[in-house]
Amino acid sequence: MKCVARTSEGVTRFLARNRIPTLNIAGILEHEAQLDIFVDRDEDPRGLLAKGPWFWYVHAEDETFLEEVIQDMRRKDGFYQFSGLWRPLAERIQARFPLVWHSPCSLFVLPEGAQVQPRADSPATSVRLEDAEIIDAHYAYRHSGSLEKIRKCIQHRPSSAVYVDGQLVCWLLVHEDESLGIMYTLEEHRRKGYALDVSLDLVDKQLKAGKTPFLQIRDDNDMSPGLALKCGFRPAGKCDWFGIMVGMPKEVLEGGAGFQRRVQDLS
Question: At what angle do helices 9-17 and 23-31 cross, to 10 degrees?
C-alpha cells in the first residue's frame, strides 16, 4: 500500500466511482485532520484505507486490497475498530479475527435530485454552542471525549434544533463523517412533530451546502427508519461499526480488568 494525499486525483476518482459505500469516507477525509491514507496504486486505485486516531475507514473493489489491509493488521497485536464499513467487506474481516464489539447498521441515503420542503411555520433553528452539554448528557454513546466531539459538530457543521421558551428540547447534528445523527427529543416534548422538523431543516441545509444527506441507523433501532423514509431517504445497503482483536494484546495478557476497560473505550 502507498501513502497518498487526501486530495490526490486517484482518491477523488475512487470515491466518485464508489460514491454510496464511501460517503462516510469522503466525509471523514474532509473533517478529520489526523488521517493516514493508503491506496494500492496512485493513478487508478482499487482500494482505499484511511487510518484515524480511533477508527479505520476502508473500501475495496477487489479481494487483493482487502487482504493487504488484513495483513497490515496482523503486523501488530492489538484492537482495531472500523467505522461504517460496507457489509460485504466487514463480514470478510470479521471472519478472520475475534470480534470484540459489533454495531450493525442500515445505510439510508437521500436520492440524487431529491428535494425536501420544511414546514413554513417550522420552529427549527440551529443549535447554540452553549447547549453542547445538554446534548452530551443525553448522548447514548457518551464518553470522555464526546462533549468535545459535540462542540465540534456544532461549530463546524450545520445543525438543527427546536427551542421551547428558550430551552433546547429536540436536536440533530452532523457527525465528522457527514452522516446525520445524535438526534434526541426530550421525553415531555415527544409526539409533537419536532423530530420531523429538525430532520427536514438539516437535510435542507445539507442540500444547500452541496452535500449528499445520509444516515447510518442501527439495525435494532425500530423508530428512526420510518422517520428517515418520511424525509425522503431510501435504503442503500448495510454497513457495520465493529472492533476486532488481533493476536494477544497486552490488555488481555494483563488480565480481565484491563481488558474490560479497553473494550469499553473502544465501544
Answer: 150
